[in-house]
Design a protein that fits this description.
Largest sheet: 7 strands, mixed
Number of helices: 8
CATH architecture: 2-Layer Sandwich
Distance between the termini: 71 Å
Radius of gyration: 35 Å
Strand content: 5-15%
Shape: rod-shaped
CATH superfamily: CorA soluble domain-like
CATH topology: Beta Polymerase, domain 2
Number of domains: 1
Mean pLDDT: 83
Helix content: 55-70%
Strand order of the largest sheet: 2-1-3-7-6-5-4
Order of helices and strands: HEEEHHEEEEHHHHH
């Protein structure tokens, strides 16, 4: 199957009949459960498509599970009900024009012989799972499907984390080399991206950790081991996000300090200029009064004399401020 057709399949509702890790497309309206020991059926629904509700209604699921799979807003969580397992995961949004931190919720119901997943928007991790199943190297049972889904979501997250780390390093270097007011927006965006991703991954870490310890019939020792490893990866990722957030806060403070120093330096220079020209302005204002008795009013050298006096006064003021402040600061 070509990459274009695979992408088209991933952006629509579909069903795969899986035997020994090999997925075969089947009509979505066919019964979606395999006999125990004969593989499983994976039905994938996009929440906004009109046939999604009818497919879930015909699946025989509890109304509570159907509502949980279709709810617009949700956070990572899990629920064991009978022989089934409801799991909500979050993955980065790599769709064109989207921000990675605007994470996509993957809602999954797993039970012996059947997997039902629901997305609000397409997710690249789902395409990766489809590719592996269509190529015959996918998960062989629902428990393995869950472990593979978590692993694939984290694999897709890794480049985003690397990019966040590199952006943080570049911002730190730019702030130290050439602090500019325009960097504030970039630092703020970088900080918000890390905070948004962490907001979803922190509860997802708790979900994966709990599943790795849950003695559920769907999850064998191998699957729990994979989930335990995924839990360790999530712990490291959340710790990295905490570090990125703290580094971004330090970078923002450093930038604010540099900009504040620039403003203070500029204001200090303007104050010196104003202090120098204030006495000179006073002298010129006095000499500009339109009354009789101004000294030198009839002298042809009066203007030159006044200019020399102003230069001398200005020079003495500049020398005073240099000795009083500039040498003290440096």
């Amino acid at each position: 199957m070509s990459a274009a057709s695979l992408r088209l399949l991933a952006e629509t509702s579909f069903r795969l009949e899986v035997r020994a890790g090999k997925g075969v497309p089947r009509p979505l309206d066919e019964p979606g459960r395999a006999d125990p020991g004969e593989g499983y059926s994976w039905s994938h629904l996009l929440r906004e498509q009109p046939d999604s509700r009818s497919c879930l209604a015909a699946s025989g699921l509890e109304p509570l599970i159907q509502e949980a799979l279709l709810t617009p807003e949700t956070r990572p969580r899990w629920l064991s009900l009978g022989s089934g397992l409801l799991v909500v995961l979050r993955g980065v949004n790599l769709n064109p024009g989207a921000e990675p931190e605007d994470m996509v919720a993957l809602r999954v119901w797993l039970e012996p012989g059947r997997v039902i997943s629901v997305l609000g928007r397409p997710m690249f991790a789902v395409q990766d799972l489809q590719r592996s199943l269509l190529e015959g190297v996918g998960p062989v049972d629902p428990g393995a499907w869950l472990a593979a889904a978590v692993r694939t979501i984290l694999d897709r997250l890794a480049p985003v984390m690397d990019e966040l780390g590199e952006d943080g390093d570049l911002l730190e270097e730019e702030v130290l080399r050439n602090p500019k007011a325009g960097l504030r927006r970039r630092v703020g965006q970088h900080r918000r991206a890390g905070i948004e991703i962490r907001r979803h991954l922190a509860p997802m870490r708790e979900v994966v950790t709990a599943l790795s310890l849950e003695p559920d019939t769907l999850l064998g020792p191998v699957e729990r081991a994979h989930l335990h490893e995924a839990s360790d990866r999530l712990i490291r990722i959340v710790e990295d996000l905490d570090t990125l957030r703290d580094r971004a806060a330090v970078t923002h403070d450093e930038l604010s300090s540099h900009l504040s120093d620039k403003i203070n330096s500029t204001m200090f220079l303007l104050s010196l200029v104003a202090a120098i020209f204030l006495p000179l302005s006073l002298l010129t204002s006095l000499l500009g009064i339109n009354v009789n008795g101004i000294p030198g009013a009839d002298s042809p050298h009066a203007f030159f004399t006044v200019c020399v006096i102003l230069l001398v006064v200005g020079g003495l003021e500049a020398l005073f401020f240099f000795l009083r402040f500039w040498r003290k600061e440096h």
